[in-house]
Model the fold of this input.
Amino acid sequence: VENITTLVGTGTGGKLRLCGSEMSGLNTLDNAWLLADDGRFAAFGGMDDMPLEGLRADVVVDARGGMVLPSWCDPHTHVVYAGSREGEFVDKIRGLSYAEIARRGGGILNSADLLHTLSEDELYAQAMRRVREVMKKGTGCLEIKSGYGLNTADELKMLRVIRRISESVPARVVSTFLGAHAIGRGYGHAEYVDLVVNEMIPEVGRERLADFVDVFCDEGFFTPEDTARILDAAAPWGMRPKIHVDELASIGGLQVGVERGALSVDHLENMREDEFGVLRGSITMPTALPGTSFFLNMPYAPARKMIDSGLPVAVASDYNPGSTPSGDMKFVVSLACIKMRLLPSEAINAATINAACAMGLSADYGSIDVGKVANFFVTEPMPSVDFIPYAYTTPIVSRVFLGGEEIV
Ligand code: NIG
Ligand code: FE
Done:
């Protein structure tokens, strides 16, 4: 790639994540070129000293004065779902209660009812439309959760769809088993947790359908005790925890996750400041989902304070039918700046290197480093990197490359 005005997000120097003040350091190179070989970044440098000898590219891409960024990494999505819930959106605007909304076809259980009626092929087709959309918007790695099945057969159906997606797209897809997203229809609480532990996890494990395990540990959903039991049952199958905590209330899920080496704890809208200390020194990535706070008119995770206290932060879209029907990572970066007061450089690092780390993928993704997978996008010409979050509805992506190949 030639004639790049600014090559963004280069050289994290082998760091797998950026913490605290490191997050405002976004390495850039002006007037640059970039070489990908065999699907990976092979070299980059300044246009003035491009080594013409011995450097022959099969395909030369003219960036035409645009910038190049590492692809967004989205470490928390629920893009495999059936239909949509715009009725619930309107009901909420009208001021209906949660119970009334559930009666009228809103809520996780209603998404589960709808998913139950869909074939695997139809579910795959619906999800693929969303995955294609986000790839075109610059997402190169994404995590996808189950959690709208809520019985063994439908949870497995969702995970098979995620596997099929991962096998058919050039983006890197990782899968998370979220059987404990809500109590499945017809089950009692204890009965459902038993089902997750005794039946779902062994089946998911035997078929190797999930990289990670998740629990919606929150008021009215699953307790820290349920969460500990589920994480402990999934551990022998190699599923590492990435869990939903502190969205509605802080009830101890974060502590349970950190104690069990969770890769990430996500949401954190109602995180308490004394929980910062629990994260300190751990490998767990706190992951904020500002799109959810925006869509639900809820508090934002205290990302600014976490960074100021030296912690790392990642951001993700949470793309799902109920709390944020959008996987637009550029908008997530804008919200991180506008609503959580992150600097553009911090927000971009949160959506790339730290987001990759929240999926355990930052040795191979999340920055433009020689040897990493060549997932990147070329932007329209822009005055500066800060323009990206500033122009919060302007599309910026002009061309997308995943594994070194252009996608159309
Ligand atoms: O991450 N918080 C739990 N689950 C989803 C919302 C699910 C839904 O409403 O369908 C979330 O926001
Ligand atoms: Fe979620």
